[in-house]
Amino acid sequence: MKILFYNINRGRNNLSGVVDYISELSNIIDIFCFQEIEGEVLEKIDSLLLDKNFHKKYNKHCIINNLKHDGFDNCVYLSDKFNEVSYSEVVDKESVIPPIIWVSFLYGNSKWNILNFHGLPEPGNKLDTTERLLSSEKIIQIAKSMTGKIVIGGDFNLLPETQSVKMFENADFKNLISDFKIDTTRNENAWRLYPNNKQLYADFCFTSQNCKINSFEVPKNLYSDHLPLILDID
Fold first, then answer.
1. What CATH architecture does domain 2-233 belong to?
2. C-beta pairs of 192-198 under 8 Å, 24+ apart in sequence
């Protein structure tokens, strides 16, 4: 089974390029987990993937609080090859923790849980804050309540050295960015905007220990200001 996690930046960097890239991947990817997908790029990817018998779960939300976060949108497209599929949106209305799309299904002899997440974008230094620590704590709490295999991924807006990331490792999740020695999840589209603050990371993928990782790669391209995370897993 192959899973893609990808912040496509609303198609603003290269709309036709990202759509063509998703078209190419649609022949090999079973689950697409997007962050920052809306407007024209959402319409084009809808047309592409829904015509290929993918099912869609989309959440549009805005975070308005004292930190003045912008709104952002997540979407999961799931192949129709899976059984007993259920979708839910995990929302903590009492805090600033962003919603999480949770998809569960049966594949082979196992139950699977996929969590698609977009972390708080501010402050832009991607270091720990109370809200980011609470977000990690909430995700881990939810994941630990699940049965079966677990994959958590997306744009966390975090650097690897943060406690918000290390919490997943301490909770016995595999950190694939670390395990596979990925050198960056960003590209020139991001660095060009902030030449004095070149951040190499933002995106992560964590799995439970009972997952068999066949491969994990982060292809370098310029279709977005983030790089895609591609996981082959059993």
1. 4-Layer Sandwich (3.60)
2. 193/225, 194/124, 197/124, 197/125
Determine if residue 136 is left, alpha or beta; phi over 0 gives left, psi from -120 to 50 gives alpha, anything else beta: alpha
Q: Is residue 216 within 8 Å of residue 202, measured between CB atoms? A: no
State the CB neighbour count (10 A cutoff) for residue 217: 14
Torsion angles phi and psi, residue 181, rounded to 5: 55, 45
Enumerate the domain spans of the chain.
Answer: 2-233
pTM of the model: 0.95
CA-to-CA distance for 170 and 128, rounded, in angstroms?
16
pLDDT tens-digit series, residues 81-100: 999 999 988 776 666 678 78
